[in-house]
Amino acid sequence: MATQILMPALSPTMTEGKLARWLKNVGDDVRAGDVIAEIETDKATMEVEAVDEGKLARILVEEGTEGVAVNTPIAELSNGADTSAPAARPAHPVAAVPAPVAQPVSIAQPMTAEDKDWGPTAPITVREALRDALAAELRRDPDVFLLGEEVAQYQGAYKISQGLLEEFGPKRIIDTPITEHGFAGMAVGAALNGLKPIVEFMTFNFSMQAMDQIINSAAKTLYMSGGQMGCPIVFRGPNGAASRVGAQHSQCFASWFAHIPGLKVLAPWSSADAKGLLRAAIRDPNPVVFLENEILYGQSFDCPTDEDFILPIGKAKIERTGTHVTIVAFSVMVGVAMQAAALLAEQGIEAEVVNLRSLRPLDTDTVVASVKKTNRLVTVEEGWPYAGIGAEVAMRVIEHAFDWLDAPPVRVNGADVPLPYAANLEKLALPQSAWVVDAVKKIV
Amino acid sequence: MAQAAETRKRGKTKQPAIDRDQLLQAYRMMLLIRRFEEKAGQLYGMGLIGGFCHLYIGQEAVVVGLQAASQPGDQIITSYRDHGHMLATGMDARGVMAELTGRAGGYSRGKGGSMHMFSKEKNFFGGHGIVGAQVSLGNGLAFSNWYRGNDHVSLTFFGEGASNQGQVYESFNLAALLKLPTVFVIENNRYGMGTSVERASASHDLSKNGSPWGIPGLQVDGMDVLAVREAGEQAMAWCRAAKGPFLLEVQTYRYRGHSMSDPARYRTREEVQAMRSQHDCIDNARHRLETMGVEDAAFKAIDDEVKAIIQDAADFAQTSPQPDESELFTDILLEG
User: Fold this and answer.
1) Which class is domain A121-304?
2) Beta strands in A254-331 (DSSP E)
3) A181 given a catalytic annotation
4) Of these residues, A16, A137, A200, A249, which one is catalytic?
5) How far apart are CA A60 and CA A76, in angstroms?
6) Taking CA atoms, what residue in B is nearest to A220?
7) Residues B140, A193: C-beta atoms closer than 8 Å
8) Considering the domain A317-443 in this protein, what is its CATH number?
9) How far apart are CA B92 and CA B114, in angstroms?
């Protein structure tokens, strides 16, 4: 009787991986705990340990196969004495599941003169965009350095800093102990003395440990010093829900940070957002909170290839033009809004999707101009509704375009609960495109 | 700690070699700080200074001794009990006092107050109101020296109360790992607000608090400016030789309350009086100067000069205008 060995999921968001190497051959004895294979994902290389004992009877997925979906049988173990099984190799490699790629985006008309045409583009992942931005700014300015947990030798917990240690060395790519309060404060001190630190929080959940240094030291010193002492620093890392990691590792801190005068807060969606805004954040003389999203890291988008590509802070982007309703979103929710807009288009409703990009400062002009055209507003955010970004956007629209509104603004947001672990409950807690469609149909 | 005991002994019994003029300078600075703080207390009583106001009276030898041991380019950062540190770095008494009164002529143009003043020019990095936060920041100043490869050190001051904060130990670890030139200075004035060090800290020798990370420490008599200076020189030499951080526990005493309103029920009047009459750092320095042959006229001249500076600062702090209302919305962000 054979036991199947399945492709394991080795991280919360892993859906597929590359079977990089078999460490056992057909016919070898395998004991529980033996490392039998190596798997690579876009985040890391990991070892597969055997759970059962037996003889490796068949290898079902050849080494080197890319895109092996989680739970695909990759080998068979025979129990006990049966050693006669031939070293069969699979006739048909398991079909790779395609990586999630964002829908092609209809590029909106430039809203202002500040939107520059950067020429040719090429698809890159958000992860590559972030790494390229870091590398470009590290090359450009010797005062820029990166510190955080696992950023150097491990190449980044999410592989954002892959290759940077090799190029820039241990003085500029610095592994820290797990000590957010201490290293964030150290980085703020270095920034007060003129250096330009980039602090990576492995996730923003851990930034709470450093909150005092971000708010009380980084954001306020310029004001408290009467303009003498600025703090050019970037705090970056993944924000928001990942997948199945429970309440303490899944939350959106956008409205927390956006509340604070003295901070700038950015939330990129696409690769171009990620690259252009991270470069702008690093060059900015103020403390910038840069909210990335783990779900987006592996997604590909077209991004300008121009070496000087950079985006302005404080400018929203119309990702899709429409006339019936304005959907305002940021970060991963822009993708949800775009899916909803596509669904709505099938039903004859043309939604305009505004990607905020910058949460503080907020591009009120672009949002208000859009609402004045569509007369309806739906906001979409992953975070909680109470005092959220949606509430702020809706209030600004009420202040500046009340007479243009044909219906009350509607908020789509994460459920007002700590994020549950159970798959079905988690799904019910996070905004989906169908929710956005429903919200739009309430007011159109 | 044998080394610490030795330092204390040296401080008390044997005269470290010091130039008479240097001691006179230290005496003058300690006196300037004391008279400044007395005046600040007066202005507070008159309602000209608001909010919190933490006076440094009694502790003057700590910052003056360490400043005497430092070199130009070294950074200083401290807590909210910061007026003395500012004056010791050479910041102008007028600008400090005018900040206390919240006027346009203050170092932060009235927007920081007693606890939040800075001077890039004098390498004074504040002035921090959250207990212990300046320790991580001071480590960052040391980091900037390490990163730039210069031989400056960061003098990072905090109280024995702050020494119980978690980020202090995070900073010890980081400083020791990276070999940062941080001189951690615990100003042990025995009381964190109203809680005595014995009731707050299970560690009885705070100079050993860095020992798990291999950070050398010394206990120093903080009422003796020369002992502080000597210990500071040792600590800074260690840091400048790229050996990593150093910890000084400077044992001192504040004569006044924690802030202005302080019931003072946590210690006896006799305890305070005994410190003032037997251990005062300014009296100590004066006695030593007298044995060196400094005459009354010289002390009188210093007194008069200090008095004039403080009176001028107090006048300035009362006549400098309040900040323009437009200042409310400036200095929030720098232009990109």
Assistant:
1) alpha beta
2) 264-266, 288-292, 300-304, 317-320, 325-329
3) no
4) A249
5) 7
6) B332
7) yes
8) 3.40.50.920
9) 14
Question: What is the value of ipTM here, to two decimals?
Answer: 0.91
- The CATH number, out of the four listed (3.40.50.970, 3.40.50.450, 3.30.1050.10, 1.10.3720.10), of the domain defined by the range B2-9+23-317: 3.40.50.970
Is residue A324 annotated as part of the catalytic site, yes or no?
Answer: no
Q: Which of B166, B177, B335 sits opposite A181 (nearest CB)?
A: B166
The ranges of chain A annotated as CATH 3.40.50.920 are 317-443
Chain A residues touching residue B174 (CB < 8 angstroms): 176-177, 179, 182-183, 186
Query: For residues A41 and A19, is the Cβ–Cβ distance under 8 A?
Result: no
Structural domain boundaries in chain B: 2-9+23-317
The Cα-based distances of A242 to A238, A247, A408, A419, B29 in angstroms read: 9, 10, 31, 10, 58
pTM for the complete prediction? Answer: 0.88
Q: Which residues of B touch A311 (CB under 8 A)?
A: none
Judge whether A215 is closer than 8 Å to chain B, CB to CB: no
Q: Do A186 and B117 touch (CB under 8 A)?
A: no
A189 and B120 within 8 Å at the Cβ level: the answer is no
Q: Which of B315, B139, B319 is nearest to B239 (CA)?
A: B139
Residues of A in contact with B129 (CB under 8 A): 216
Instruction: Give the type of residue at B183.
Output: V
How would you write the pLDDT of chain A (444 residues) with one tens digit per residue?
688 888 888 777 788 889 999 999 999 998 887 888 988 887 777 788 888 888 899 999 999 999 999 889 999 888 754 444 444 444 443 333 334 444 333 333 434 435 689 999 999 999 999 999 999 999 999 999 999 999 999 999 999 999 999 999 999 999 999 999 999 999 999 999 999 999 999 999 999 999 999 999 999 999 999 999 999 999 999 999 988 899 999 999 999 999 999 999 999 999 999 999 999 999 999 999 999 999 999 999 999 999 999 999 999 999 999 999 999 999 999 999 999 999 999 999 999 999 999 999 999 999 999 999 999 999 999 999 999 999 999 999 999 999 999 999 999 999 999 999 999 999 999 999 999 999 999 999
Amino acid at B264: A
